Amino acid sequence: MLRLLVLALTCTAAAQEPLRFSREHSDYGLPNANAIWLPYSSNADHCCNQIWRAMYLAECVPRDVGGALPQEHSEPAEFFVPGWYFTKRQGVERDRHLFGGDGRQMPVEGFARANSKQLLVWLQQVDGDVLRELKTRPRAAVWFQHDLLRLARRLLDTKQNPELIEPLLHCAHRVALPKSVLQSDAVRTASARDVAAQLKNFDLAKSVEVQRRSSRLFDAEYVQLWSSIYLTSPGQDRKAIAAWLASGKGRAPLAMHSTALLLQGIVAVDDAGAPCATDLVIEARTQRLSNREPLAFDNPTTTRDGVDFAMWSLPRTAVRDMDAATTAVPFAAFRSIDMNSQELFRDYGSLKHTTYAAQCALCHRRSNTPDSAIAGFSALRLSSKPRVAMAAERKRQAEGEMLRFLDKLRSK
Questions:
Q1: 3-state secondary structure 230-252
Q2: Average pLDDT over residues 113-132
Q3: Is the pTM of this model over 0.85?
Q4: Where are the extended beta strands (E) located within 91-219?
């Protein structure tokens, strides 16, 4: 009895631990090993929780460690000079950390044999009563299916654990919902209008949705998400922004204080095996041209050369206990991500431990780049062929991209 009491007290203490390290910690933003993550059920041992933890919590040595981490440089004024976002070194054993958590970044690359066998057991448990209960919460079912397919994509990319591909696909099909449900308000979260309403000086009615060529980071074949970008410029209406997009090589530099809003939502697979873009938005980002001052330590912007970013991520716990009758998840439920917090990124093929600010500045900075006139707004590059998107065009495009992934997955 005493042993059980001690165990219960230990679990209670662990449950009270914060999920991520605070700003004062040297590992600010990384997951706390003493925390208990409950993304899909309040029962820690629920098979969906176990599967998720196997994917999204991993201890490893990153291949690269970014110089932007506070412990990697001593004098900020000397570090934040041209090229600061490129500074890195090779990871060594002392850089081993627990990475991941409830967000977009999946740290796992593959599984040892014993862990693969355990994952197969948990996948088989997603059936019967567990499956029926999960389907009463459509948002959770869609998100869980997305996690399964993301893991399958990761294992294809890393060429690991081929024995898991078919079980992951079968489990994804078991949790699939009818297309009518996937296209209903039962899976909706915050819309573009909901997000824009909370942004300062962003009038969605005066913005245009930008159609452009999908890079790999925004191609549903690789990320299983659709993405929409809305661009607004002060003093310009939709017609003026559309004309600027169409002006080609002769276009003027991007107007000061222009802002882009990016939304990403899940492309699910319905119970007939077809891709279906849902209104389950899980991430929002903004990019804003704040000034055109030179790159400097005291330039108060994310890139330190005039461009600001903001990110919000919807925690799975926000939809964990919601059923089909619940109204849409408010934008207030999204987690605001501090750009100085840390993460393990795998955007370009290797595991890199750095800050969000440094990772974003790699591609979206204003200085020392051919994109200075468009302030690092990569979607607006002429090579991206930007234009005004037609209604629902990005979602239909993502469904086609997703179909390529499904065909590849089924061929395995």
A1: EEECCCCCHHHHHHHHHCHHHCC
A2: 98
A3: yes
A4: 97-100, 208-211
